[in-house]
Amino acid sequence: MSSGTELDALEADSVYILREARRCVRPLCLLWSMGKDSTALLWLARKAFLGNIPFPIVQLDTEMELPEVYAFRDRIAAEWQLDLRVELCPPESEADPELPPGARAAARKTAGLRRLLSANGYRGVILGIRRDEQAVRAKERVFSPRGPDGDWDFHNQPIELWDHYATDPPAGGHVRIHPLLDWTEVDIWRYHKRENIPFVPLYLERDGKRYRSLGEKNITEPIESTASTIDEMIAELEASHAPERAGRTMDHEREDAFERLRTAGYM
Amino acid sequence: MERPVRIAVAGHIDHGKSTLIGRLLHETGNLSKERFAEIELASRKRNGPIEWAYVTDALQAERDRVTPMTIDTSRIWLTWRGKKFQIIDAPGHREFVQNMVTGASEADGALLVVDAVEGAREQTRCHAYVLRLLGVNQLVLALNKFDALGYDRDRFESLAASCKSELAAMGFAALATVPISAREGENLVERSAVMPWYTGPALMEVLAAIQPRAKEVNDPLRLRVQDVYEVDGRVIAVGRVDSGVLALGDQVVLLPRGTNAVVDSIDRWPSSAEAIARAGESIGVTLGPPTTVERGDVIAHSEDAPKLEQQFRSICFWIGETPPSAGARFNAQFGPVTTAVTVTSVRNPLDTESLAAVGDGAVPRYAIVEVYLCATELVPLDFHGELSATSRFVLMNGGELVACGFVDAAVSAEPPENLTPKAHLLSGGDRQRRNGHTGAVIWMTGLPGAGKSTLAMALERKLFDAGANVFAIDGDRVRQGLNGDLGFSAKDRSENVRRVAEAAALFAEMGAIVIAALISPQERDRAVARRAAGRRFHEIFIDCDLETCERRDPKGLYKRARAAEIADFTGVSAAYERPFAPELVLDTAHSGVEQSVARLVEYVRRVTGLEEEKPLELSLSGQRTS
Ligand SMILES: Nc1nc2c(ncn2[C@@H]2O[C@H](COP(=O)(O)OP(=O)(O)O)[C@@H](O)[C@H]2O)c(=O)[nH]1
Ligand SMILES: [Mg+2]
Question: Which of A248, B453, B459, B556 is paired with A145 by a 20 to 30 Å CA distance?
């Protein structure tokens, strides 16, 4: 009997975190982008709550996703009987015109999230970000308090140790919960394979290209690839060290682009 | 697939931790060319040579300084020779010690970086002490910046020696001490050509030897209930198995309420097929008969349940701005198990930055200090070194975390003012490693003539031959010394048991296997003995009917008791209370000495972890004993 494999340990800890979130933070929602991470997160939430997720699943919609992504959303939401809420993000014209184009798109999502929180009074948001995605995200906490504007005070993050998390949302603010923080991109794919979790086919090779990260169609580029199965994708990832978000323009427009996005409340 | 080995990089600010991580990533081929280009650009923009620290110092506030300064801990993955590591960068600045604690609490091992030009500084000591407290015992010392010292051998020898003695003062020892230059990449992956005098392993080779912390499957069961769900009318308690194994049908106890129950189901989704759950697994359980269960309850097996205490002494690492003082109230959180506590006394603070003892009145920030706590109710507890989930906690003052600590001992009442037990600088685990087994009290109880002393002496011989640190205490023997002042009144008999129990508990704490052979006829006295040794106590009932004992009558005492020459003789004129729930029962009326000893040896091996094939010397010299 195999106990204590890496995926088992990651899964058990994520389930623990989700259960803490449900117990200590209310009302709560989970953001689903239909990508590989947040879909794995949905699967983990079904495990944590023994089949039925007891809070709403929110998609922040820019209406710019690829058609396959919308098809996947509708299929899974029906099959898994999700309490799905689609929240339309404010138009780009409301975003800061000083920002470069990629960041402006991100700002739409940030604004959409802010609106979602204030309209519904959510005190906790569960997100599928990982430390290995980006050096700034590597500094995140599992329970990350946010100010009233969703701002992230990285100078003053709470201590986390021995199953202790700062679960109380700060006054007027909320707490972001990151159950996948310790997973790597390869872990996510291995888990998809082991658990047979469905994913958008765009991650697999078509005409010599595949999407490694799924963002809006105007700001995400597919990469060159020959990987047409999960195993081939994993092999490809292990051979290269190219950063995952390389296909996302918003991260690279200036050195601190991503840090600025996050301080302002981006996921 | 094993999980990555987690290594915390610690040390004083500017001693080169972040630089080392960046350079290690590069040297091991884990840094993509895109990341490298980004760092090169960021360094050039700031008009400097390449700053490897930017790999983890990704925040602008961390980069925009003369030398980079890490503010928050971050984690980064590294693969080397097929082995996976998760490297945890920790800030070295005094203000950010709490971030260092966050990073280090999950580490399997640590890399302590010391600037060889400066030598050990305040945060070097503080971090080393914190690592020790957090149980991160696999430590590697990297003495950095040897490029700035012309790769001087003498400096290495003298610094290595002084670091060694500072660590030894904390009861700590490094696995290896490696001279390096993080910036120039010397001695990181391969042994350096510029330090030919150094013949030890390169840094990565030492890191590769660090073992992941073992899962606590072989320990007693602890499951802290996180929440309770109702699914289709079933009440499911959910939580993570912190240690041990839970199986369907197990008889368990819920603490602190003390309810006994049976595990009716182990729930998982999508299938509940497996009837067993091991340490580390997040599960749900239903209990029968239906019983109240809440967040904060601890599920354990009744035979090795946690202690229930209201007052206890703890060893705390004090993080809060305000020092602890008697009367202060906090919330103690053992994960989901929480309780309000009042500080009753604060003792023996030690300043981790200077390693100096300071007066009881003034606890500096980042001190290690003994804090006596009184809870509002009984709390299920284990002691430091026994089990982690139920022995470590954080103290919260509202939303502020002011300390993290370990339960160190139970306190029966207010600590007497003139008693100040000092914390050990070594743990039960350290002693266990030296002895090859944990300490234990093997308490044999039974009628006179049941075979206690015979079995005790035979067992002692067997365990000794197997390499154990073992001692048998015989009831008659202590009557001549330690308890020479005691007679045979009921009160003296109880006192006799109590003293032997306390002495045995001390030996067991020292790591020895103590075999105590005492009639100890009263359940109440044996309970006292059990409390003295805690989890190390094992009650062995030497069960033999009175008739057989009387027939054996090795010392002719039954005859004299029947002749009324001896009063209050157990079995004849005084009662023997059969043990209520002994760990092991040996029926000596129906089985031979050989057989009973074999069962005892097997039992002791199991509970103390004494290895089957222990003493190397014996097999080398060829004189195997059987
Ligand atoms: N000469 C020399 N300087 C180093 C070395 N390692 C780090 N430094 C410098 O020491 C300073 C502090 O390094 P950093 O990695 O930020 O230290 P940290 O605070 O421990 O993370 C930086 O300016 C580094 O360039 C080394 O091996 N040799
Ligand atoms: Mg640093």
Answer: A248
Terminal CA-CA length for chain B: 40
pTM for the whole structure? 0.75
Phi, psi at B288, each rounded to 5°: -130, 145
The size of chain A, in residues, is 267
Q: What is the pLDDT of residues A76-104, one digit of tens each?
A: 999 999 999 999 998 877 666 777 777 77
**B443 strand-pairing partners:** B516, B539
Question: Concatenated DSSP letters for A35-79?
Answer: SHHHHHHHHHHHHHTTT--SS-EEEEE-S-S-HHHHHHHHHHHHH
Average pLDDT over residues A159-164: 90
**Is-catalytic flag, B243?**
no
Q: Which residues of chain A are within 8 Å of residue B98 when distances are taken between CB atoms?
A: 159
ipTM: 0.92
Mutate to test the interface with A, among B96, B226, B228 (most CBs of A within 10 A): B226
Pick the CATH number of A6-183+252-263 from 3.40.50.620, 3.40.640.10, 1.20.1560.10, 3.40.50.11540: 3.40.50.620
Report the C-alpha gap between B252 and B265 in whole angstroms. 13
DSSP string, B214-226: PP-TTSPPEEEEE
Please check whether the domain covering B222-304 is classified as CATH 2.40.50.140.
Answer: no
Dump pLDDT digits (tens) for A22-37: 999 999 999 999 999 9
Atom of ligand 1 nearest to the CA of B93: 19
Which residue in the block uniquely carries the two structure tokens 């040297």? B27
Q: What is the pLDDT of residue B464?
A: 95
Quickly state the pLDDT bin for B65 (edges 50, 70, 90).
low
Given CATH 1.10.10.10, say whether it is the number of domain B428-618. no
Taking Cα atoms as reference points, which of B384, B269, B302, B174 lies closest to residue A45? B269
* CATH code linked to domain B310-417: 2.40.30.10
Q: Which fold has domain B5-207?
A: Rossmann fold (3.40.50)
- Sequence-distant (6+) residues with CB within 8 A of B604 are B440, B442, B459, B463, B468, B513, B610
| Ligand number nearest to the C-alpha of B179 | 1
Judge: A135–B41 Cβ closer than 8 Å, yes or no.
Answer: no
* B310-417 has the same fold as B222-304: yes
Distance CA A40, CA A22 (A): 18
> Which 3 state secondary structure label does DSSP give B619?
helix
Strand, helix or coil for residue B361: coil
Nearest protein CA to atom 22 of ligand 1, as residue = B67
B306 phi/psi in degrees, rounded to 5: -65, 165
CA pair distance A150, B146, nearest whole angstrom: 45
Contact list, A161 vs chain B (CB under 8 Å):
101-102, 105-106, 134, 394, 404
* Residues 6 or more apart in contact with residue B487 via CB below 8 angstroms: none
The DSSP string of B394-457 is EEEETTEEEEEEEEEEE-SSSPPTT--PPPPSS-HHHHHHHHTS--EEEEEE--TTSSHHHHHH
**CA dist list (Å): B253 to A236, B238, B262:** 50, 16, 8
Among the listed residues B243, B391, B520, B596, the single catalytic one is B520
Query: Phi and psi at residue B76, in whole multiples of 5°?
Result: -145, 145
What DSSP state is assigned to residue B183? T
- What are the sequence ranges of the domains in chain B? 5-207, 222-304, 310-417, 428-618
CA of B318 to the centre of ligand 2 (A): 23
Q: Is B515 in a helix, a strand, or coil? A: strand
Is residue B99 within 8 A of residue B126, CB to CB? The reply is no
| Tokens, residue B302 | 């009744």
* Count of beta carbons in the 10 Å neighbourhood of residue A75: 11
Q: What is the pLDDT of residues A113-131, one digit of tens each?
A: 999 998 999 999 999 999 9
